[in-house]
Amino acid sequence: MPLKSKAAGTLISFEGSEGSGKSTQITRLAARHEDVVKTFDPEHFEVLEALPLSIALPTHGAVVVHAGLDPARPLHDSPPDVLLSVRSVDAKGHLTRKIDGTPWAKLWNGPEQVIFGHDARRGLQMERFATGLDTGCCYGRSLSALVLDAGEPVPSNPDTRRTRLMSVAARGSWPLIFWTPSIGMRTTRSRGVPVGSMMPTTVKRSACCSFGL
Fold first, then answer.
1. Is the domain of 30 the same as that of 40?
2. How far is residue 7 CA from its own chain's centroid?
3. Which CATH number covers residue 128?
4. Contact criterion met (CB below 8 Å) for 34 and 6
5. pLDDT, tens digit, for every residue of 61-113?
6. I want to staple 152 with a disulfide (CB 3.0 to 4.6 A). Which of 8, 35, 52, 148 is the partner?
7. Domain for residue 202, yes or no?
């Protein structure tokens, strides 16, 4: 899955491998993400290309993804941009990264258990065949994990699965760094951190980041 920057970092393309029959998908980046991509060297893209978009855990009957899947497709047919960004299915049945609509996890009918992140606003999600573990650690809330014994399948009953969860409180918030052309300076923004704060070091880093690939 070649990963390339386009138009000075404004666009990122995800290309299917040769002969896969998959078309190139273009994802437009937010301004703060564009600033990060502009700092990348070719070796950074090489590292990203080598990373998996999903991790199968066959002994646990589960697969791990960053954001989610297309609940209308088989497990391995979701495009890369969906795996990395989806949050909901809107009223027209379209996949979206927005919070509006139905969480994709509510519509996923398995049989594989999917463990995912990327949805801190909704927080912990416990569906029959999906577990969302993003509980907003980087926003100062908590870090959550699903802890299983060796060879233990992910419990299909959400109540039973809750007994396998562990959570620790964050020690602080991790600010977002972005460029504001109107005032020409770096600013920070985070939960509890005012826009315009000039000292990111005044915000303690979380004990660790929220779940995600």
1. yes
2. 24
3. 3.60.21.10
4. no
5. 999 999 999 999 998 899 998 999 999 999 999 999 999 899 999 999 999 99
6. 148
7. no
3-state secondary structure 167-189: EEECCCCCCEEEEECCCCEEEEE
Whether 80 is in a domain gets the answer: yes
14 sits in which H/E element: strand 11-14
Which pTM does this prediction carry? 0.71
Return the structure tokens found at 164: 């396998």
Quote the domain boundaries for residue 129.
Answer: 53-171+207-213
The number of domains in the chain is 2
Q: For residue 69, what are the CA distances in angstroms to 79, 86, 110, 177? A: 8, 7, 11, 29
C-alpha pair distances (Å), 148 with each of 56, 57, 61, 162: 15, 11, 11, 11
